[in-house]
Amino acid sequence: MFVTGASGWIGSHAVGELLSADHEVVGLARTDAAAAALQARGAAVLRGDLDDLDALRRGASGADAVVHLANKHDWANPAESNRAERTAVDTLTDALAGTDRPFLFASGLAALPSGRPLTETDASPFSGPDAPRGGAENLALDKGVRAIAARFAPTVHGTGDHGFVAQLVATARRTGVAGYLGDGLTAWSAVHVDDAARLIRIGLERAPAGTRLHAVAEEAVPSREIAEAIGRSLNLPVRPVEAEHFGFLGQFFGTDMIASSEITRTTFDWKPTGPTLTEDIEAGAYAHA
């Protein structure tokens, strides 16, 4: 299997899950450190990055499945991130055209329906190169290959995570306050990284073309509960703050990003078993932040 983002947060756990299930893995590595980490785990290495389209073609053409988890995540230049994502998805799916080899790719929970969680039957409203993530979900699902969208919760948590929750913890440390916005009732879905990695393997092995997998263990964790767990873990006061307290993250922490995974669980017998988000926070999973 060819994996982009193989040395990243979700990718490194996915590689471990795939190797433990006796799959051979080739990981895309941008740096010497990433290559060494992959080799140490028993994976093969293909050097390159998302802009190296020849490397993407070689990796996809020589693999029996492709897992695309890499993303530039350039918050200062989202247009570039969107362009790179769309181009990479276009290149990888072209390499798989005419085959039944699975293409599982990372997507997210966005443009939620009003008044209810997003479900697997809800199509993404984003299309075209100027859309978030370059409209890559609809692009991939329309390419005529065995494309599988893995929609990850906004926090894929665990020890070593450097994502949104790590930034919330770092902000609390810096300011001396574990904050939340408004009444603290906006909520995020959450999933432990090991459960997400297991779902990636299940999707590759079993999901048909056009599947939307929801890597969601907890449907809605209120932002105030997240702040309270951070406060307990750092022994800091918890109180409402303004969005500017969080910098760019304020626009996300004050937004509902929630989804159901009922169809994913029922269809693929996926049963999350990892700790909850607040359990992870209070157990010290973000002590590094």
UniProtKB/TrEMBL annotation:
Residues 1-206 form the NAD-dependent epimerase/dehydratase domain. Signal peptide: none annotated. One of its GO terms (molecular function) is aldehyde dehydrogenase (NAD+) activity. One of its GO terms (cellular component) is cytoplasm. It comes from the Bacteria. It holds the Pfam family Epimerase. This is Putative NAD-dependent epimerase/dehydratase.
